[in-house]
Amino acid sequence: QITERIIVLFVVINSQEEVQGKYVVCVLFFLWNLLDVVRYTYNMLARTGIYYLPLTWLNFSLCIPLYPLSVLAKAFAICVSLPYFESFGTYSIKLPFPFAFSIYFPYVLKMYLLVLFIGMCFIIQNLFSERKAHLGTGNIKKKRS
Q1: Of 123, 110, 9, 105, which Cα lies nearest the Cα of 67?
Q2: 113 close to 78: Cβ distance less than 8 angstroms
Q3: Exposure check for the chain: N or C terminus, fewer CB within 10 A?
Q4: How many Å apart are CA 110 and CA 57, to the nearest integer?
């Protein structure tokens, strides 16, 4: 997760000044921070042995809709930055004769988008299983008298 954020923040957003002023960057930072505030607060309290049920529910439920939104925001930021990488040639490398191939960075970003969405499917599945393990199935059975 840290590597993913470093790539998006420093390689995609910071290297292109035109992308830094886009609204998607603000939305992406908001989603990252919202998820982290809830997750780190829950983890800190859990380490001390304090389990606050609303925070536990929020930690295991909020990430399910917000994680795909953050992936979409990352993907949109990458898509917005692609024309700038294509026109300026930032991070595109042409290697000398013995190797005789080049690395076109927009293609690397497009492959990263594919990996990002495939990884999102596995992470969402893991988030659902963690939620089920910590909170149960969510079915409340009523007593019959």
Answers
A1: 123
A2: yes
A3: C
A4: 35
Reduced to 3 states (helix: H, G, I; strand: E, B; else coil), residue 93 is strand
What tokens were used for 63? 């990430």
Mean pLDDT by 10 residues, the chain (145 residues): 89 91 95 95 94 92 94 95 91 79 90 94 94 75 43
Buried b (16+ CB within 10 A) or exposed e, 40-53: eebeeeeeeeeeee
Domain spans in the chain, listed from the N-terminal domain onward: 1-91+105-143
Q: What sign results for the dihedral spanned by CA atoms 44, 47, 51, 54?
A: positive
State pTM to two decimals. 0.83
What distances in angstroms separate CA 107 from CA 104, 112, 118, 120, 129, one per listed residue? Answer: 6, 9, 17, 20, 34
Q: Which residues contact 27 (CB under 8 A, 6 or more apart)?
A: 73
User: Which residues, in sequence order, are CB contacts of 15 under 8 Å at separation 6+?
Assistant: 90, 91
